[in-house]
Amino acid sequence: MSFTKTYFLCPTSDFIHPPPAGPLCLGSIIRSTSTPQYPLNRARIVAVADAAPPVVETDWKKTISTEKGFGLGVYAQFLQLATGGLPLGPEVNVERSNKRANAFAFDTVTTLAFEPTQEYVQEAIKAPAVQTWLREPRQKFSPVVSLFLVTGLKLVKGARIKYLTSRSTTATGNIGIDVPALGTTFGPKGHWVTTNDDQTEFNRESEFVFAFRVKRLKFGRRLKVEDYNKGAFLAVDGGQEDGESVLVEDVDGSEIKTAKAVPDVTENGNVYCVPA
Hints:
Distance between the termini: 40 Å
Low-confidence stretches: 74-81, 237-256, 261-276
Number of domains: 1
Largest sheet: 10 strands, antiparallel
Structural class: mainly beta
Order of helices and strands: EEEHEHHHEEEEEEEEEE
Shape: globular
Oligomer: single chain
Number of helices: 4
């Protein structure tokens, strides 16, 4: 069974305190999934009335590892051009490998989540900072811009985290030049290996926000609310393939204070546009 990555990892260089003291909570509107600690609407969060009951897991462990490698053959025909046609030894094979492993262990993981309604989205984007951002020149003159609504949080306690990266290069073969008249070969041949490992490990007892999930608010000809998981880190449930967005609902533009009705031939009437 395949699992879709739906949760984004919070930055661990600067731990995000849990709500209500911390900056991130259900209903936060952020500009980027890479900087969740700076929500636009922190001063005006719309309370979530229909959140799902918190789910608490204990003794939670997960290891995520990836490995990428490739080989490169340097052929004798190529080397002959550089040596004026002298016969060469066999090809050289170069293999490079990048490995990354992240190991997470928590005493407890608490999951908070909700499914935003059309009415909730309409109210949330009325936050003054959100409206100010939409009116900035960069957004105002773009055909489509996006913000992200936080719909899920994973709060953890008793964290033990390890990060490991390993890079290696292995070369084998013979790039020597054969000289038949002398019955010998000049040049290097053999086996070369270089490795670079880096490991970071730390523990933290107090609670912090480990990961979050979002829906994308897509401002364009219409405001659309979409599932979003591109670049997500953590898989917790089944569903679509990674990177696939699913349209959830269109928001009624007539209810948005800054929206304007404009004619659209393809819609056989007017559509509501939110200045971006």
